[in-house]
Amino acid sequence: MHKKYALLDLENVQPVSLENFKTEGFQLKVFVGANQPKISIELAQEIQGFGERAEYIRVQQTGKNALDFYIAFYMGQLSCNEPSCQITVISKDTGYDPLLKHMRSIGVKANRTAEASAKKQQPAQATNSSKKTPTQMSLAERVQFAKKHLKKADKAKPAKLSSLAADLNSKFQKKLSQQAVQALIDELIKQGIVIDNQGSISYQLNT
Questions:
Q1: Radius of gyration over alpha carbons of the chain, in Å?
Q2: How far is Cα 88 from Cα 117, in angstroms, rounded to an integer?
Q3: What pLDDT, in 10s, does the model give residues 178-201?
């Protein structure tokens, strides 16, 4: 079974809940800044709920982006030691995204989420999206709609980014602009659902 790791950027975000990661079997690494004096009791209790699957990593030195580099180092270490693992960075910092995109391009399951509890909202979004027109859907709803469609497509899924764009354009009744379709594809790649291998693509639809 492939291991899952959640790397929490505690300097950047203090999530309301980590329950989703706990129930899905993630191992949690909590990165704490050198000048970060304390965390909330509620968050400490959430982390404690992981038991031995959680650890704190304290940044020893101050400096611009010091904690970010720690997380980048651990992402590299984990993906090297366990190439089949899944890595999720919990942070609002978009600076991680170019590295995560590169990791996905070489086959590593890596993504970022700004809210640890965001995944809990997706089933409701997917249900509501079926009642909306493509232009009324939020980006999150379009992602869920596209993911459901790609699962149904099975072996007939597009093999290239260009054909994926055409496929999604058709599936959304040709009512989305070219920019909206591209934004959807970018989000699918960002979430690790679509893995871009320099134009050729593969999929990770079971996460």
A1: 18
A2: 13
A3: 888 899 998 898 989 999 888 789
